[in-house]
Design brief:
By secondary structure, this protein is of the alpha/beta class. The chain has two domains: 117 residues, no CATH class; 74 residues, no CATH class. It is built from nine helices and four strands. Helix 4 packs across helix 6, helix 6 runs antiparallel to helix 7 and helix 6 crosses helix 8. It is globular and about 50 Å long.
């Protein structure tokens, strides 16, 4: 089983861009994001080192769990994870996360974005997601299988039902209701049933699984 190396680094180039983005973009101001003062580079680097230690503890099992769940491999040998002062919404490509997460939130955020990266590398198509959640918004459709995989990681790999509970019911709620709607579908249909439905589409969409 081929697993990528996850390189977690502070991005001095991206950081000022995301500071400006977070502080000035109207969509975040409209959501009542509170004013904040960026951390100095040394403090951000300390968080990067903290993240590395967290990932060293949980990362190998998470990566193996993602590959096992989908029965496909990553098509990247190295995945760069860029850390900045603040990014109100995680990005998967390039993979950019905030420096201020708790251990639990960091595990949830990075796992979520890595599932998106696996999806991109294996060319999972919109039509596959539509079949799992027909008639719903794209953001909901694209996160049903992501959330199904997350539930598998939390319960079957990490044995951390507390992470599942925190992801389904974050303390401040979801910025976009589509994420909660996707979780509702996973709870209704079952994460194992959803992945079996998803795998049945592999041949139709030219996806090669490890077991094929």
């Amino acid at each position: 089983m081929k697993l990528p190396e996850i390189k977690i680094t502070y991005s001095k180039i991206l950081d000022p861009i995301f500071i400006c983005y977070t502080q000035n973009d109207p969509q975040w101001k409209d959501m009542n994001y509170q004013p904040w003062t960026p951390l100095p580079e040394k403090a951000v680097m300390a968080h990067v080192e903290r993240y590395k230690e967290i990932w060293k503890k949980y990362g190998p099992a998470i990566l193996e769990g993602i590959v096992t769940f989908f029965d496909v491999e990553f098509y990247e040998n190295i995945i760069e994870v860029y850390i900045v002062n603040k990014n109100p919404r995680g990005f998967s490509n390039p993979l950019i996360l905030s420096c201020n997460y708790t251990e639990n939130v960091f595990i949830m955020k990075l796992t979520h974005e890595l599932i998106h990266r696996l999806s991109e590398g294996n060319k999972f198509k919109l039509g596959m997601n539509m079949k799992l959640a027909p008639g719903l918004p794209y953001l909901t459709q694209s996160h049903v299988i992501v959330h199904a995989a997350l539930k598998y990681i939390y319960l079957d790999i990490l044995n951390r039902p507390d992470l599942l509970e925190q992801d389904i019911n974050p303390p401040n709620g979801y910025t976009f209701h589509e994420y909660q709607d996707a979780w509702n579908i996973v709870e209704e249909k079952g994460y194992k049933n959803l992945i079996e439905q998803f795998k049945m589409l592999y041949n139709q969409y030219g996806i090669k699984s490890l077991s094929s």
